[in-house]
Every structure is written in C-alpha cells, then in structure tokens.
Specification:
The protein is of the alpha/beta class and about 725 residues long. Helices cover about 30% and strands about 15% of the residues. α1 packs across α12 (about 300-315) and α5 runs parallel beside α7 (about 200-205).
Length: about 725
C-alpha cells in the first residue's frame, strides 16, 4: 500500500521563513538565486551556494570518497535495504566533506548538499550509453530501489534533510544520446503511465524526494524542462510535488536553438519558469530580467520559484548555526572509512551475477592452483571498476589485484593484457593483435584462466564522451569491441580443457552468445566500485556466494531489438519481450541448489480492494550456504488492454544454511495488482491473477538456464473495477 511521504514537522515555519526572505530580495537578487552557482545575499545572511553536486554511487567529483558499485550494479543485488544503507553512507560522507569545505571557505561546485541523483530513467534499450546510471529496465524495481536510495540520502530526521536528493531525468529519457538536445520522445499514454512515470511517482509520493530534474528531450512535443503537462499538470498537480525543479545542464537553450519551441533566450527562460522549473543548471535564467520587462513572466512566478529553493536550503540547515543542525556535527574523518569501504565490498559481492557454471567450474580452489592466468583488457583496469559520476577512491582493487591478494604467495599469477579494450592493437606502432600471443602463452601454462573482457565508462556514457571512437556515448551494437572476441577464442583454445572463467565487465547487456556456448563459467560484474576486484576474487574462490540477478535483459543480438528511437514498449524489456533472450531479466545462479515448493494463497477468491498473501517454501539442498534472491511475479489474465506477460511485484533476500528451509510470504494489495488501460488509467480489474515465486522469472529460458521452475498459484478478484490515482 502506498504511504505518502510526510512533510517535515516544521513545514509551515519553513514556508513562512522562505517567504520572508524572498519578500526582502530585489528582483536581481531573486534571479541570481535561480542559477546553479548562486551568489551570496549578505544583507539577508544567505551565503553563496553551488547547487550542482553528484552522488550516483558515492560522493562524486569532489576528491576522495568511498566509491560504491555503479547504480546498475546496485540494482543487480535486488535489495532495497542494501541500497538504502549505501545511500545513508553516501550522505554521511557528503556531510563530512561539505562542512569541512565550508569551514575552509570552499563553496565550489561539487561541495554542496544537493545531489542530482538518482537517475531513475528506464533502461529500455541496451544501446543507450547512460543506462548503467539507472536501476535497470523494470519500473517496479526502479521505484523500490530509487525510493530506498532517496530515503538513505535524505535521512529520517523529522525536521532536517541530511542531504537533498533529485529524481532525474523527468521524463521519457533513454537515448539516443547524440540527439538528446533535439529529440522528441513520442510515447503512448499507456506506456507513459505504465513504464516511464511510476518510478518518479514513487520517489515523489512515497520517498518525498526534494528535487526533480527535467530531461533534455521533448516528450510528445513539449521540452521536458518547460513542459506544462509534465511539470505542472502531473508533477505538481497530480502528485502534489512541493520541492524544487532543476533543469538539466544547459538544457534551456535547447528550447530555441534545437527544439524550436521558442524564438529567443528570454522566451525560453520564461517558458521554463512559467511551467514550474525553479533552478537553471546553466546561465539562461539571467534572461529573466528581460523576460519580466517584456511581460513574458510575472515577478510573483519568480517569487514562487525562489521560495522553493530557499525552503530546500532551510531544510538542509544552511541558514542556521551548525549547533542547531544534527548532521553538521558529522566529523570529516567519517569520510572514506574502513567500514564504508567494507560496505562497498559487500555491495559489490551482492551485485555479481553468475550466468553460467558448467560442471561446477566455480568456485576455484586456490590451494590447488600452482599457476593462474589472468588476461584481458579489464583485468587490471581501474576505469572498469568505477563507472561514471564517480568519486576518487583512496585505493582501488582491480580484478587482478583482488585475485593476487586472495591467492597470496601460493599461486603464481601470469598476467597478460591480451588486447586493447577497443583498438586493434595495444601499442600504436605494433601490428594488429600485438598482445594476443602473450595471453595465449599464459593460458597454455596455467592451471586455470580468468579472462576479463567487456567495456568501461569511456565506451558507454554521455553524449560528450567521444574518446571511444563511437562518437556519442551510445553503443553501436552489442558485440565485444576491438579484438576481445578473438582474444577469448584464442585463450580458450590454448587452455585445452582447463577451467576458463569469463569475467565480463559492462554497464549494459552485451552479446555473450559465443561465451555462453563455449566458456565453462561466465560472470557478469557490471562496474563494481573501488573494492570490486576483491569482491570478484571472493566469489571466484568461494569466499562469498553468488546472489545477484540481472536488472536488464540480455538479448542475443541487435537484430532482436526494436528501433532505438521507438519509445513504444512493444518488444522491449522482459514484460513485453517477443524474442527469446540470451539471459533474461531476473536471472542469476548460485553455488547452492535452492528448491521451491508449497505455493499457497491465503484466499482463492477475494473482493477487489482487498489484500491476498502468497507464500512458498524454500529449501537449500546444496552443501554450501546461500543468499537467495526470491522474486514474485504477477500476471493479470483479464486486463483491459495488452499487459505485460507478468511483472515483478515482490522481493526477498533469504540466507539459508545447507539443508535449511524457510517460508516466504508476499502481500499483494491493490497497488501491486493494478494494471493500465490504453489511456493510461490505473485500475484493479476482476478475474484471474496468477503469481509465480522463485529465483527467476517463470519463462522457459530462465527455467532452462537455472534448472528450476518457480512455483505458481492464483486467485480470483470479484467485483467492479477499481480506479486508482495515477
């Protein structure tokens, strides 16, 4: 059941205080406060403040901080509590760093408490370069993890914000990167409300997110940072959002330069403010002085925007003495602690997804390995750990470093780069494939081989990341870049039947068909953070148990994907998939065998609006402890329009000793049962509902890969359809 976020206990006092400050400002002062690098208004006791800060998976771009796994990796843990704990730790480091910066007179960019995170866009197409910033392809999972991260960042003090989170990019934004400043994302009402908006709604209505950032693109003709429908009708009207809205950086100039919806800079500034945008990442709001003189925007509209911004600063304690603000006492030494780095390592362990493990190839026994070959361009790569929007770790453990530490002196490690991550040679003066023979030599002499391939954030990211040769941050396809496939084939041949493990690093789905058919073990590690190499070694050598699940579908090739520019959900994500994937959403295996049984609904028939409890039993039939990621999917068989095959509606993390069993239960109420009709209306409908509980989806590909089928039950809803707010 949805529990709306509660306003702070002193909400009315905050409102009156903000209104009083704004009433004493000149128009010039008001406009200055609407720019991201806001100057001081000394006569009113308002210090200078730079609103721009990032905390996607740790405090970013401000020097040393704990670097947690990238967002897509955190999503693979399928664990709300873990994500909230990470968020709370990030906010502790943020406070530690911010107050020290202020004490030193440093109010520069990336030193504040307003974080433009999380990114809750839907990762609808694996070619999108920024997809690894998100929590994956599923609206429900994104809602749950996004809300958890916001709660961690903002804290639970009844009066004060620990930090201010920002839900971005609102809305319908997921590529193509190269066209984001001019692209119009056309989307149906059903897809808008069913797929693209639920996570934003959850962060506003449930988590009380303090800010929302508009996207660069247009949505159905309206530029998102100046959309009367998105910002006015939906965000502030339907959802009652009371925080502030910021533009994406330099997005407002796109209104007249590339979108063509206005003619001049003052018109663009006025459209944004009149639509509900309060803060400009950029400089275009300087034109508001002209816009007021020309009658394009009223001063009272500017007053309203600045009041929202002042409320946020008041909630953060920026306009109060430190002794009144509980979080101001967090000492600088709480940044980058051993405890925080330990949490990063545990989060990385939980994010690793074991995709294949033929004949128990893993875990490896280091005591029996005299020689281990570690090869590939991502074996000793720090960028392969960090993703983007990252801080600077005080120490980074690459996969090679983690393996060396785990093996100690008892195993000789033969390292070979093998190939450049995307070029056809590692040295510019050498012949093509200049490092492959070295990798082959190492593989031929080793008792086992770990091959580390994939991408890093220079190969998938934002539009301006052009150093990869791709040009705009998006991937041109799903194949391994450069000579990586050739390297893998050569190494596997040289190993001659010895254990070979592919450790695949990427923030998105890739075509791993050849590896799935030929390599004994395949491990997907996403971008695992500064402690990632240690976490990978923990799993390879059996010091931790695989528990991650894929937050995105891995298709077999780009031939199975719709057009990148098509925002319809037809044929996209596990919910509307039409072609069998290589690895399904929600898939991942462990070292232990977990068996599900005894599916029970506490009622077979119930009235619409009531809640049903669905339960199943789990038994660990293996000889190792396990961490099982239990998933519940619900299929509505009598929906009023085409609906998902099934949708994720429940998660549990269960730890079981060998031979142990437990029961898990999920309560399904109207919120979980609701479906969307063709006009985007949300309702609970009568008829048969089928649920599935297991370690994966109930699709045949997951069953074949995991060797187990989820258990299923059903119930029937009786009565007239129930319309829910959307």
């Amino acid at each position: 059941m949805e529990i709306p976020a509660r306003p702070p206990e002193n909400a009315e006092e905050i409102r009156r205080r903000a209104e009083g400050l704004v009433s004493r400002m000149t128009l010039d002062e008001k406009v200055s406060q609407m720019l991201y690098d806001a100057p001081a208004v000394e006569r009113l006791g308002i210090p200078a403040y730079n609103w721009w800060n990032e905390a996607l998976h740790g405090v970013a771009r401000a020097g040393t901080a704990t670097v947690f796994p990238q967002a897509i990796a955190l999503a693979a843990a399928f664990d709300e509590d873990l994500v909230r704990t990470v968020g709370a730790t990030v906010s502790t480091e943020a406070r530690a760093k911010h107050h020290e910066s202020v004490r030193r007179g440093d109010r520069d960019i990336y030193k504040g408490l307003t974080f433009w995170s999380p990114n809750i866009n839907i990762f609808r197409d694996p070619r999108w370069g920024r997809g690894h910033e998100t929590f994956g392809e599923d609206p429900w999972l994104t809602s749950r993890l996004g809300a958890a991260y916001v709660r961690g960042l903002q804290g639970d003090d009844p009066k004060w914000l620990k930090t201010a989170a920002c839900a971005k990019h609102f809305a319908v934004h997921s590529g193509p990167e190269g066209e984001r400043h001019s692209f119009d994302a056309r989307v149906s009402e059903k897809d808008l409300w069913e797929t693209y908006l639920p996570a934003f709604r959850a962060l506003v209505r449930e988590a009380g997110v303090e800010a929302v950032m508009g996207a660069y693109n247009r949505t159905n003709g309206e530029p998102c940072c100046g959309s009367p429908r998105l910002l006015g009708e939906i965000l502030r009207g339907d959802w009652g959002f009371d925080g502030h809205v910021t533009s994406d950086c330099w997005a407002l100039q796109d209104f007249h330069l590339t979108h063509g919806v206005t003619r001049t800079a003052p018109e663009s500034a006025a459209l944004a403010v009149n639509s509900g945008c309060d803060l400009n990442c950029g400089s275009l709001f300087g034109n508001l002085l002209v816009a007021v003189r020309e009658g394009l925007v009223e001063e009272k509209t500017i007053d309203r925007a600045v009041e929202r911004l002042m409320r946020t600063r008041i909630k953060l304690g920026m306009l109060d003495p430190d002794d009144r603000v509980p979080f101001a006492s967090i000492p600088y030494m709480e940044n980058d602690t051993a405890e925080h780095r330990g949490l990063s390592r545990e989060a990385a362990r939980r994010s690793l997804v074991l995709l294949k493990n033929r004949n128990g190839t893993l875990p490896l026994d280091p005591s029996s390995l005299r020689t281990l070959a570690v090869v590939g361009p991502n074996a000793d790569s720090v960028p392969a750990l960090l993703g983007n929007y990252n801080g600077t770790p005080s120490a980074s453990y690459t996969i090679l470093a983690g393996i060396r530490e785990a093996c100690g002196d008892g195993t000789r490690i033969l390292y070979a780069e093998g190939c450049h991550i995307w070029k056809d040679r590692a040295d510019g003066l050498a012949h093509e494939g200049d490092r492959i023979r070295e990798a082959v030599a190492a593989a031929a002499r080793a008792d086992a081989v770990v091959v580390c391939l994939g991408l890093d954030a220079t190969l998938e990211g934002e539009q301006f990341e052009k150093e990869n040769g791709y040009g705009d941050g998006d991937k041109p396809g799903l194949s391994l870049p450069g000579l990586q496939s050739r390297l893998l084939e050569a190494v596997l041949a040289a190993a001659e039947g010895k254990p070979v493990v592919l450790v695949h690093v990427s923030g998105s789905a890739m075509d791993l068909s050849w590896a799935d058919a030929n390599v004994p073990a395949v491990l997907q590690v996403f971008y695992p953070g500064a402690e990632g190499g240690r976490a990978v070694a923990d799993l390879l050598f059996g010091r931790s148990e695989p528990s991650g699940r894929l937050p995105v579908t891995f298709p077999r090739s780009t031939d199975d994907l719709p057009d990148f520019r098509d925002y319809s959900m037809k044929g996209r994500t596990y919910r509307y998939l039409e072609k069998e994937p290589l690895y399904p959403f929600g898939y991942g295996i462990g070292y232990a065998r977990v068996v599900y049984s005894t599916p029970v609904s506490d009622r077979d028939r119930l009235a619409i609006g009531e809640t049903v409890r669905c339960s199943a039993r789990l038994v660990n039939e293996g000889d190792r402890p396990c961490i099982e990621t239990v998933q519940l999917y619900l299929a509505v068989k009598a929906a009023p329009a085409p609906t998902p095959r099934w949708s994720l509606r429940g998660l549990r993390t269960v730890r079981l000793a060998p031979g142990a069993s437990t029961d898990v239960s999920f309560d399904l109420g109207p919120e979980e049962m609701a479906v969307f009709d063709g006009e985007g209306n949300r309702q609970v409908v009568p008829g048969r509902h089928v649920w599935h509980v297991g370690g994966s989806q109930p699709d045949e590909r997951s069953v074949a890969l995991a060797g187990a089928r989820p258990v299923s039950g059903s119930f029937e809803l009786i009565g007239a359809p129930l319309r829910l707010p959307r």
